[in-house]
Amino acid sequence: MTLRILGIETSCDETAAAVVEDGRIILSNVVASQIELHAPYGGVFPEMAARAHIEAISPVVESALQQAHLGWQDLEAVAVTYGPGLPGSLLVGLNFAKGVSLGRNLPLVPVNHLEGHLYAHWLKTEAVSGPGTASVPGTGDIPPFPLLALIVSGGHTELILMREHGRYELVGSTLDDAAGEAFDKVARMLDLGYPGGPAIEKAAQQGNSRAFDFPRAWLPGTFDFSFSGVKTEVLRTLGRYNGPRPLRLIADMAASFQAAVVEVLAVKTAQAARELGVTCVLLSGGVSANTALRTAMRSRVTVPVLSLPLVLCTDNAAMIAAAGTYRYQAGVRAALDLDITPGARLV
Ligand code: KG4
Ligand code: ZN
Fold first, then answer.
1. Does 205 share its domain with 278?
2. Do 117 and 346 form a contact (C-beta atoms < 8 A)?
3. Does residue 57 lie within any of the structural domains?
4. What's the structural domain count of the chain?
5. Which atom of ligand 1 is nearest to the CA of 179?
6. Which tens digit of pLDDT belongs to each residue from 171-211?
């Protein structure tokens, strides 16, 4: 039997809707990005994000149905992100999903945004090539348990152990800035624009990653992370250069910063994977689009490292529909008084 679920995601600055079949086949995946709206501010402006979601949500959902060549009657349920995320942004998606649930008589399935980032790995994708895109021999294209997932995004840096569907153990997380947040803040310091991750990655290609020895927070005995030290050190170093900053300097700083962040992420993930005896490592979230990170992971982690095509690394609704399918099959339903949980945790 085919099970088609509409996913809705508005936790940050992407208005997204998607239809996924049987938790794995993407029938449509529509993302309206607000990047241009927030670029002048160097980060997401929450109130503007919420207003832009209000404008975009209805056409985005309509497009998701159209592109899937489906009508409302073809859907089994609507899955929506209830948290974590920006309150005003979450409210738009959740309320729209409630309207759909009530108006079209579809069950409402609540999904944690982080669970979405994990379940992006259960979606079938075109074969992708490049560093860190291995599959696990003998398992087809389904990630085998137990697995370790690194979620690295603008809001999160979390190592999660998953022994089976829906069961998560927190292995480590950031004590301060998320990895993507550090990329965004350092990009702003270096005048590289927003979003910072791709801008730093691009600038770093022209730079020397050994030019500056930025600090690595190893936090021994834990699998936690900290990125505020490296960020402060970039600022301090930058302060030593008055006057015009040559492109070479900016490129060297970007490359050295990226190397510091990537090394800590890869070394600690590899160590955790070894100690926990997992069968594979999943990379999720916007920062997992970073090529240096994928390459470092593949060279340090001894089990297969699975990464995603770019559209499934960053925020999207196909991942919410995928996670929602597993929740729906497990009998999870939300009532119409479901509230947002901006600080929701996975574990
Ligand atoms: O997953 P995502 O779209 O949104 C959140 O849930 O936060 O991740 C966005 C984050 C931003 O901080 C962005 O700078 C970062 O992912 N990012 C990257 C790259 N592409 C996006 N960071 C490093 N390298 C990249 N290529
Ligand atoms: Zn995200």
1. yes
2. no
3. yes
4. 2
5. 12
6. 999 999 999 999 999 999 999 988 899 999 999 999 999 99
